[in-house]
Amino acid sequence: MSRYLIVVPPLTGHINPLAGVAAELTARGHEVEWCGYPDRVRAAAGPAAVVHPCTLPATGELVRPPTLTGPAAFRFLWEDFFVPLAEAMAPAVTDAVRAFRPDAVVTDQHAVAGALVSERLGVPYLTSASTSAELVDPLADLPKVAAWLTDRLAALRREIGDPDATGDPRFSPYGVLAFTSRALIGDTADLPWDRVHLVGPAIAERPGDPDFPWDALDPSRALVLVSLGTANTDAGARFLGEAAAALDLLGERVQGVVADPGGQLTDPPPGVLVRRWVPQFELLGRAAAVVSHGGHNTVCESLWHGLPLVLAPIRDDQPIVARQVAEAGAGVRVRFGKVTAPRLAEALRTVLDDAGGHRAAAVAVGRSLRAAGGRRAAADHLEQLVSAHPVASARR
Amino acid sequence: MTTEATTPTTPVADESTVLARIATLLRELPDAGLEDAEIGRDTLFHDDLELESIDLVSLSGLLREEYGERVNLALFVADLELDEIIELTVGRLADFVVASLRATEES
């Protein structure tokens, strides 16, 4: 029996994979507590989750205007969110470690306080990569941008970490849990292999939706789900409109379901089902294809079900994930800001047509994701971490 | 060094010709949706054209096909600071191409 502290930012996509790992650890008899933002954690991990609460930085939650994309979005993400977030979370992480005395910490890559406080207090920790994007060294061709980020991480380390430590806090020297697989990141990516564990998606039990109108779905048509995930509520109005129109164009053969959490589709076409919230995992079990912004969790869950994708990346890791899917042959990408309904309908026809091979490729990637072990493999690595460093908690 | 065997001849590294050529290459980028885009010196690569770093990679290859090895966009981009990448305009790309061509003409 060991004690694990899980440190997460207030971002649903970063919490979900770790909720699966937490459930597995608890089922094995370990004690799990969280450090983060209670509402967000409990929404993913259930109402009984024990959460050491963090304060939000003065800059607040991550809110970016829809037009903020590309390198400007990257600068904002670090300068105005992840760095202040680390400063805001550090005191709570320190208190949580002292109060709970975990045998090991598992911290999201972007909750940098989790890594830096653990190194300062001498607790073994794994970092969690909730997306495959950071693993492929996306800044390799932009050395000055990479140096810009390294400078900021070094400044954070002087402030809240162990000033004598070295290395990138996003990649723990004890190891990295990456919720992806080789088939998705591609053969060419050069990783620090001995410490990056590719465990595939850790899918957690999520509540279904008793009110979802399953009877309204026409089983004779191919089900296509359109979802822009949880973090892009205000960015997607134009795109969702084009997507609904594309589903209408294909209405003879396609039953469209659109997740519209912001309620932005005021007048959707009659044959398309639009809901603020959809039971995504259950829908994927019945779907034939998915249209998404390329969020890593939605992509992995779709591929897990062997579903080909049409991806319209908005920013951050999404262009990289979309490229990985396209290179694996499991989907096609379109331009989020420019794509029109006819073009989107054409992309959907391409992936729905089995002769194109996208479904076969998606099934193959899905197989590799399932084979990677998921939450069980992640829990195995965390147990091994504690057996390799058994006296860590006794020292504190 | 000479690359005459593989390099199409571009007699004069004229700024407006290069700018027009880059605009055409951008309009022809597959799936970029820029067929009808207005592209001038001050057009921002990211904010105005909604292009991504992967598009810079594609453009780098197209420029090499067009002008030969003497135009190495990847090397130029590698030397940019984050703020310079955010503010990258089509005009700055054109200036870089013209400077690369002139450097080889003079040598």
TrEMBL record, chain A:
<keyword id="KW-0328">Glycosyltransferase</keyword>
<dbReference type="InterPro" id="IPR050426">
    <property type="entry name" value="Glycosyltransferase_28"/>
</dbReference>
<keyword id="KW-0808">Transferase</keyword>
<comment type="similarity">
    <text>Belongs to the UDP-glycosyltransferase family.</text>
</comment>
<dbReference type="GO" id="GO:0017000">
    <property type="term" value="P:antibiotic biosynthetic process"/>
</dbReference>
<dbReference type="InterPro" id="IPR035595">
    <property type="entry name" value="UDP_glycos_trans_CS"/>
</dbReference>
<dbReference type="Pfam" id="PF00201">
    <property type="entry name" value="UDPGT"/>
</dbReference>
<dbReference type="GO" id="GO:0016757">
    <property type="term" value="F:glycosyltransferase activity"/>
</dbReference>
<dbReference type="InterPro" id="IPR002213">
    <property type="entry name" value="UDP_glucos_trans"/>
</dbReference>
<protein>
    <submittedName>
        <fullName>Glycosyltransferase</fullName>
    </submittedName>
</protein>
From TrEMBL, chain B:
<protein>
    <submittedName>
        <fullName>Phosphopantetheine-binding protein</fullName>
    </submittedName>
</protein>
<dbReference type="InterPro" id="IPR036736">
    <property type="entry name" value="ACP-like_sf"/>
</dbReference>
<dbReference type="Pfam" id="PF00550">
    <property type="entry name" value="PP-binding"/>
</dbReference>
<dbReference type="InterPro" id="IPR009081">
    <property type="entry name" value="PP-bd_ACP"/>
</dbReference>
<feature type="domain" description="Carrier">
    <location>
        <begin position="16"/>
        <end position="93"/>
    </location>
</feature>
